[in-house]
Amino acid sequence: MSIKYPLASSSWNHLEYKALQEVIRNGYFSMGPKVEECEKCFAEYFGSKYSIMVNSGSSANLLMIGALMYRSYNKLNKGDEVIVPAVSWSTTYFPVNLYGLKLVFVDIDRETLNYDLKALEKAAKGNKVKLIMCVNLLGNPNEFKEVNHIAAKYNLEVIEDNCEAMGADYNNKMAGTWGIMGSFSSFFSHHISTMEGGFVVTDEEELYHIMLSLRAHGWTRNLPKDNLICNKSSDAFTESFRFVLPGFNLRPLEMSGALGIEQLKKLSNIVKCRRDNAFRFKEVTSKYDFITIQKEVGKSSWFGFSITLNDNCSQSREQILKTFRYYGFEARPVVAGNFVNQEVMKHLDFRIDGELSNANVIDTNSFFIGNHHFPMTDAINELPKVLENCK
């Protein structure tokens, strides 16, 4: 059975290839002026003071956690606890663990696929909890008015893993900008593609300076002379190999920066088309009571279309997936399902706060199919035939 309706497709045209050729002609391939220009465009698009580009959304999450470990005030310390949703991608969790912090897994809402707000508030009362990491799953923003109320009530901070929700907004404010930092991904299958790539946005200058250093080995070379980390001399020779933080090499390439500049110009239209597809998807699926689709919060950017099988569904997920494959639909689990069921958990420091009953339902009864930047007329017209065979 061939795949007619894949999870992802390229949104590049001649403009992206022209941008790549320009980098090739210039002969400057490592992080440079195109990356800097892309960062300025990205910050402007999302209404943030600062943007920093990295080589992946996973690296963006690593950078956010690292920045909170080294700032001058209210810093995270090893052993502190970070609340995370039980359903997300692996690199929501791994940076927290790598910095010696403890993961606190909380259940999700079965319909929105984001935090169960009652479960979140219960977990927020923990004495060692310092941070809430929100994940805007499959393009859907969290209910940030309530999340930030909980955070303020218990003196916690909020960061966002917005890697699947570029272009989403809640109450006319962009997802990824509701916390003190937000991460984004520009991997091939995401809303825009720079081959590999990611971003962090923030309005806090110190966090920005820390991330500039952590991104490139922990050195001072990329810091402005007047910065909030260290006194920087005017001696370029000394500063070229001066290290002040235990950093990484998370730098993007100039090609990725050039691609990002072009892709950002298309983002509004990409998100609009994804929302138009979602409107038709919701119309079709609303006629079938044996499935539930993701409940939109604010304005989702609809990374993909999730389907959860209800108790009255007469077939197993395996049987349903077989039917979808027969009609040419590529499908995946809803991200990584209930992550505490993953084998890697034996290597992580964590605790579970409350029951993860909804996450378990998503783990066993859900999957998602792809959304795209173009009208999905054929795929959506095919869906009723597929669903009729799934009853």
Task: Describe the secondary-structure layout.
Blueprint: H1 14-26, H2 33-46, E1 50-54, H3 57-70, E2 81-85, H4 90-98, E3 102-106, H5 117-124, E4 129-135, H6 144-153, E5 157-161, E6 169-170, E7 173-174, E8 181-185, E9 198-202, H7 205-215, H8 236-240, H9 254-285, E10 291-293, E11 304-309, H10 317-326, E12 331-332, E13 350-352, H11 357-365, E14 366-370, H12 377-388
Parallel strand pairs: 2-3, 2-4, 3-13, 4-5, 5-8
Antiparallel strand pairs: 1-9, 6-7, 8-9, 10-11, 11-14, 12-14
Helix pairs in contact: 1-9, 2-9, 3-4, 3-7, 5-6, 9-12
Describe this structure as you would to a colleague.
This protein has two domains: 14-262, Aspartate Aminotransferase, domain 2, CATH 3.40.640.10; 267-388, Aspartate Aminotransferase, domain 1 (Alpha-Beta Complex), CATH 3.90.1150. It has an eight-stranded mixed β-sheet, with helices on both faces. The model has no long low-confidence stretch (mean pLDDT 97). The protein has twelve helices and 14 strands. The longest helix has 32 residues, at 254-285. It has helices at residues 14-26, 33-46, 57-70, 90-98, 117-124, 144-153, 205-215, 236-240, 254-285, 317-326, 357-365, 377-388, and strands spanning 50-54, 81-85, 102-106, 129-135, 157-161, 169-170, 173-174, 181-185, 198-202, 291-293, 304-309, 331-332, 350-352, 366-370. By secondary structure, it is α/β, with parallel strands linked by helices. A hairpin with a 2-residue loop joins strand 6 and strand 7 (173-174).
